[in-house]
Amino acid sequence: MAYSQSTESSLIIQKYSQKFCMIYKPQVNNVIKDSDLSSKMILQINKDRCCAEIETLASISSCEGPAVTRILYSTEDQRSRQWLKGLMNEIGLTISEDGLGNLTGRWTGSDENLSPVATGSHTDAIPFSGKYDGVIGVLGAIEAIRSLQEAGFKPRRSIDVIQFTAEEPTLFGIGCLGSRAMSGSMTVSEMSALRSDQEDDIDKLRKAAGYHLPLSDVLLDSSYYHGFIELHIEQGPRLERDKLDIGIVTAIAAPATLKFELKGDGGHAGAVLMPGRKDALVAATYIIQEIEKAANNSESPDSVATVGIMDIHPGAINSIPSHVEFYADIRDINLDSRNQMVQYIKDSASQICKDRNIQLKVSTVNADDPCLSDPAILDTIEAACVEASVSYKRLVSRAYHDTLFMSRICPTAMIFIPSESGYSHRPEEYSSPEEIEKGILILAKTLAIMSHDI
Ligand SMILES: [Zn+2]
Hints:
By secondary structure, the protein is an alpha+beta fold.
């Protein structure tokens, strides 16, 4: 399907018909009557402005471009937050920050008694990654609000733009720290126990970065937000392959991460004969094959399991590996099938190690539940796509995002835009200005409807 006004980025939000409003929440009294919304409104996304801001943010990095590195609480992270607050100030958002550094800019609505609608994502970047992961959801939200303001739109519910602290696990080894804490998926004592790889505790690091408010205040209650929506790059090849503009995310697969520690016996590679060996690495390779088999044999098409990191001790050519440590990342959108894979892997590992006389310790690093998107928000996004004549499909997200945790306190959904060749977490990450523009347009339209949903 073509983009209807492909020669210009000017699109018309037509009169919101009763039918369209009914899609969002099928209640007779839910018809939007607000004069600001029902009047004809020209919504113009300025893709050049937004793309220039993406470049500016990418330049605030601790590595040489085009790669981007921005680690939580680093100098670059602090500079990027200051710059972002400047953008929020320019468009009149009211800024607040919590004790972890979650940054919120609020466009105050006409009825402050109503719970706000929220959107946003993250701007931290793993070492040597790209410009778009997370950034599109923050700078895209700023552009969506600017375009709504320029079109004369007035929200009824306030609209919050959130920059979540540390979606990436780089500093503390745990992903989605900010949204995890906001949604109460992590207790204050769990937060306080976090240590960086340099063994610095979180209180020292956050306070050095200027965040002194108590961690107990980070938590939001479950009626705080009316809904949350996140714009993000797909980080996969499906939209590009199918030549589609928008992915409407129906569910997010959640990972379980298992840590394996194997202890065998070392020794000289020439001196110790094969019958006497307790080689921890050989045992690990058999476990890894079972991990792959668990995903291959699962009845769920969305099952995946990966080992991407391993430490071998002592790590010499002529020495039998005595200790091995590795992690398995196991995902599915179906919790039962993910848990079945986890159980199969644990059982197989203990059998393999028993047969080989290897000591085994398996610990669960995290096991988050998958989430399903809110059907009403999905319908609203779809209606916005139809109205804007952009092509779309519904799909699941196999990467997890801040939305996964926000779904525990409010209705949520995500909007994906294509990623060139599915690249992500590398400098080649790319989405075109036109793809970004369409994503922001759909976000703006969806926010407009949600902010008037009573
Ligand atoms: Zn991301």
